[in-house]
Write a structure and sequence with these properties.
heterodimer; A: mainly alpha; Arc Repressor Mutant, subunit A; 2 domains; about 0% strand; globular; B: alpha+beta; Jelly Rolls; 4 domains; 13-stranded mixed beta sheet; three-stranded mixed beta sheet; about 30% strand; elongated
């Protein structure tokens, strides 16, 4: 028998597990539309991803993990969007012109990319990164505020850059 | 997909960080080292550029205000981005540390404080609730005991039914309950601020992060603010048909009486009936019923009192109606998901 192509593999996964995934998502989310969207996005991720589908040992566990990851990303997006808009409304008086939807989306997506890395490091490290590269505080100032050495601040920042690189966030 | 960083790669990251060090000598040294690296090793040069891109993200987002027409806004953008990130990370940290604590203690937490333990993990708890509606979506359900439950939009709850107990945890939003009679099994609703116990009756419960609002339509319930095993700070109170109470964990206050029949039919017809209610509260309710954001100055809106009947299933029309009645109010709709409400003085 010829080995199956990638698309044939995905087709088979779809036929065998789509219904199960949908049922699980429906139970978890309690909304059939949201469940259908998420199931669809999970398979789209398979099509576009670099995963070798024939090597997934237990497809259901993999699909469940991927679907969960999609939900977490969605949750982060919603949260950051509302936090940013609130912050914008709080900081700015009402006379400023409303930002365009595209410009808003770009800023929000960038903040999401930053937080997907910053949420996996310590609170001190993420504070150092935000203070230095966003608020423009000097490394010595930050060291003073955190009560650590300047060397330690540099170590935090280095750790974050390497983390971002290994997660693959800063890919163009 | 985790790849081990080579020593050279780690070194490159250190140099990049030193490019913005306080000491000018340190900066010059780092610049020279990176320049040399780029010349000598093209492969590592590429990897180094990749490392710098994450910093570029941070710099770009703080430099580019979404509406750059306003120079004042450009100056505030770093603070806005930084605050957004810090608030998000704080939320994330909270839900994670609670998840960590929850695991080993799960057993006794579940036995002692069923509502409390799960409630604290919100808002992730909302995402994984048993029953959930999103903005603009209504739902009717019949529970196993025959009780009817109607969910307003943006509502989430968990159902725990056993042979001896009927328990519901209301995590977010608003529900109408028509509780089936069962003398052996009391029906208990847990919210963040306390519990409501019923035998067989009809009522509406609404939760916000700060308080719970109970509207009795028929018969009676008993409200106990606070959590069952902790010290109760406010005394339990019996609430009867036509009464409305608002409670937090340590305080319970009676609101003006309502007309039970009218309130019930308004709820079923997706209508909001308010009487001398601050506009900020009305907008908050409208927000729950529509996707996207409504931006407004809550402090200023609190001063305006509204008496009206508004359609909740058509929030655009509800906003129009508010505008017609308050001429000083302007509503600007930039997209379906982004509406601002302003007051002109």
């Amino acid at each position: 028998m010829l080995p199956l192509s990638k698309h044939q593999h995905i087709e088979r996964l779809y036929i065998e597990h789509h219904g199960w995934l949908l049922a699980w998502l429906h139970r978890t989310l309690g909304c059939s539309h949201h469940a259908a969207d998420t199931a669809q996005n999970t398979f789209i991720k398979l099509l576009g991803g670099s995963v070798v589908t024939s090597q997934i040992a237990s497809p259901r566990a993999w699909l469940k993990t991927t679907a969960k990851r999609i939900l977490v990303d969605e949750y982060r997006h919603q949260k950051i969007e509302s936090l940013y808009l609130n912050e914008l409304a709080y900081q700015l008086a009402h006379e400023t012109p409303a930002p365009s939807a595209e410009a808003l989306l770009m800023v929000i997506e960038t903040i999401e990319a930053l937080s997907s890395v910053l949420e996996s490091v310590s609170a001190k490290a993420s504070h150092a990164f935000i203070a230095h590269y966003i608020e423009g505080q000097s490394q010595v100032e930050i060291a003073h505020a955190l009560g650590v050495s300047t060397k330690m601040v540099q170590k935090y920042l280095t750790q974050i850059l390497l983390k971002a690189d290994s997660i693959g966030v800063s890919k163009p | 997909m985790k790849n081990k960083h080579t020593a050279l790669h780690v070194q490159a990251a250190e140099w990049i960080v030193k490019l913005t060090a306080d000491d000018p000598d340190e900066r010059a040294q780092a610049r020279a080292a990176l320049a040399q690296l780029t010349l000598e090793n093209t492969q590592q040069a590429e990897a180094t550029a990749r490392l710098e891109r994450f910093i570029n993200l941070a710099e770009r987002v703080s430099a580019s205000a979404p509406s750059s027409a306003e120079p004042a806004q450009a100056g505030q953008q770093p603070a806005i981005v930084a605050n957004t990130l810090r608030q998000y990370l704080h939320l994330h940290q909270q839900s994670r540390s609670l998840a960590k604590i929850r695991k080993p203690l799960m057993l006794w937490l579940l036995m002692l404080l069923p509502a409390w333990g799960l409630m604290q993990t919100a808002p992730l708890a909302v995402l994984f609730a048993d029953v959930r509606t999103t903005a603009g979506v209504y739902d009717n359900q019949q529970l196993k005991d025959g009780s009817q439950i109607r969910l307003n939009p943006s509502t989430a709850l968990n159902v725990h039914f056993t042979a001896s107990q009927r328990e519901i945890e209301l995590l977010a939003g608003e529900v109408y309950l028509d509780v089936a009679k069962d003398k052996q099994r009391p029906f208990v609703i847990h919210t963040r601020q306390g519990q409501i116990q019923a035998l067989g009756t009809r009522f509406i419960v609404r939760v916000t992060p700060d308080d719970t609002l109970l509207t009795m339509l028929e018969s009676r319930t008993q409200v106990t603010p606070g959590w069952p095993t902790l010290k109760t700070l406010a005394a339990p109170q019996v609430v009867s048909a036509g009464q409305m109470v608002r409670f937090s964990a340590d305080k319970l206050s009676n609101l003006p009486d309502i007309h039970a029949g009218m309130t019930e039919s308004a709820f079923k017809q997706h209508r909001l009936v308010v009487q001398n209610t601050p506009l900020s509260e009305v907008l908050e309710t409208l927000q729950q019923h529509r996707p996207g954001v409504i931006l407004y100055d809550a402090k200023a809106m609190k001063q305006i009192l509204v008496t009206a009947v508004l359609p909740l299933d058509d929030t655009d029309r509800a906003l129009d109606l508010l505008c017609e009645n308050f001429t000083s109010l302007t509503v600007s709709q930039y997209s379906r998901f982004f509406v601002t409400v302003n007051i002109q003085h």
